[in-house]
Design brief:
Arc Repressor Mutant, subunit A, 69% helix, globular, disordered N terminus
Length: 203
């Protein structure tokens, strides 16, 4: 008995959860590689290796894919921010490095910019809760007041986001080593930890 080869690639049968994860992973790869403009129905379907109709079946529209991707990436960012408070018992360069690593992870800074540009920054409210948890842990473990701890984390997030989004390009533009902007931001944070009142106009 002979076996007839049709040349067709067998269909991969996935559970609904696995199918959604495959689509979101494909969308995230496109976001990281090409930016938000690449998150179109045909492009996401092609990257996921499925038909356009399959994307619509699992999400209803490309807008829903984008929404689900935002929520997934924000949740991951929240986990990364919370990890900062597990690094040590007090503010340290290691804790700041963890936060900078989070924002330099593929797509995270682009996600934040994307949310702002599309008017979806409200989805970052989950980040507020994570920051508040880190602030509480810092104020419990150190002599920092809650207000000082909050200022430190807010400054750290803003600096880390800027470095993640534009730091490498700015260093290159100015003829500096790739990590120069990150080093500058880290130096500012170290100074702030040593003299918390210095950013508030204190002595």
């Amino acid at each position: 008995m002979s076996i007839i080869k049709t040349g067709k690639v067998p269909r991969v049968r996935r559970s609904p959860e696995a199918a959604r994860e495959n689509i979101l992973a494909a969308a995230e790869r496109l976001l990281v590689a090409q930016g938000p403009q690449a998150l179109k129905l045909a492009d996401v379907a092609a990257e996921a290796g499925i038909a356009n109709a399959s994307v619509l079946h699992h999400f209803g529209s490309i807008d829903e894919v984008q929404t689900a991707l935002m929520e997934r990436m924000v949740a991951d960012l929240v986990a990364r921010i919370l990890a900062v408070s597990e690094v040590g018992a007090e503010p340290s360069p290691a804790g700041a490095q963890t936060l900078f690593d989070a924002f330099e992870a593929p797509g995270v800074a682009r996600l934040a910019a994307w949310l702002e540009m599309t008017g979806e920054a409200k989805r970052m409210t989950m980040v507020r809760g994570a920051v508040q948890k880190v602030v509480a842990r810092l104020s419990e473990r150190t002599l920092m007041t809650p207000a000082e701890a909050e200022d430190l984390i807010m400054a750290s997030v803003v600096l880390a986001m800027g470095v993640g989004l534009f730091g490498r390009a700015l260093s290159t533009l100015m003829g500096k080593p790739a990590g120069h902007t990150r080093d500058l931001a880290m130096a500012l944070l170290v100074k702030h930890v040593a003299h918390p009142s210095s950013w508030r106009g204190g002595d």
